[in-house]
Amino acid sequence: MVALRRAVAADASFLADMLVVAADWSGDHRRPKVQLLADRQVNRYLKGWKRAADDGVLALDDNGAPIGACWYRVLGKTEPGYGFVAPGVPELTLGVRPLWRAQGVGRTLLRALCDVAKERGHQRISLSVERANFAQRLYISEGFTTLSSGRDSDTMVKTLR
Ligand SMILES: CC(C)(COP(=O)(O)OP(=O)(O)OC[C@H]1O[C@@H](n2cnc3c(N)ncnc32)[C@H](O)[C@@H]1OP(=O)(O)O)[C@@H](O)C(=O)NCCC(=O)NCCS
């Protein structure tokens, strides 16, 4: 079982790495890291981390170094993320370092983040995922359902019970 800890303000740079991994999920590196992070649609998931309403969890290796992260941010109607569902519903981002994938880290992080969101009083949590990304199967198996669909992606939501 992988070790977890709550994300803090000083984790912004690791979260930026994971944001790049999530935005470039297929690994085609069409846009370099600096360009991705300069994109307002992308950096709104992290800019100014950690705001009072932000929260997240990190997975750690045996030396305590981060290997993956899942975090959420409550984005308003005026600056919605790709997974915007309604005001006040947090949108999550998930990424695991390539060497650590397919070992249950992503699922563990996702579950832990949903627990955090629930503890903080949220009733739902949302995300956006491209249908070609196998991550969608993970989300479905964790109880997320599709609320709306774009050309290539779905907005999914989970009710936190
Ligand atoms: C998506 C991601 C976070 C999953 O993390 P992970 O630690 O590899 O996932 P897990 O090992 O917990 O696997 C969870 C499920 O994902 C699916 N999965 C994992 N690796 C897979 C692979 N190589 N091929 C197909 N399905 C896979 C399986 O359904 C798996 O469930 P199972 O083990 O019960 O069969 C990780 O692959 C990643 O960082 N990808 C790039 C970033 C990304 O796509 N983020 C999400 C953007 S919406």
How are the SSEs placed, and which strands pair?
Blueprint: E1 3-6, H1 12-23, H2 33-38, H3 40-43, E2 55-60, E3 66-73, E4 91-96, H4 105-119, E5 124-130, H5 135-141, E6 145-149, E7 153-159
Antiparallel strand pairs: 1-2, 2-3, 3-4, 5-7, 6-7
The chain binds coenzyme A.
Task: Give an account of the 3D structure.
- By secondary structure, the protein is of the alpha+beta class.
- The chain has one domain: 3-Layer(aba) Sandwich (Aminopeptidase).
- It is built from five helices and seven strands; from the N terminus they run E-H-H-H-E-E-E-H-E-H-E-E.
- The strands form two sheets. The chain has a four-stranded antiparallel β-sheet, with helices on both faces.
- A hairpin with a 3-residue loop joins strand 6 and strand 7.
- The longest helix has 15 residues.
- The two termini are 24 Å apart.
- The model has no long low-confidence stretch (mean pLDDT 96).
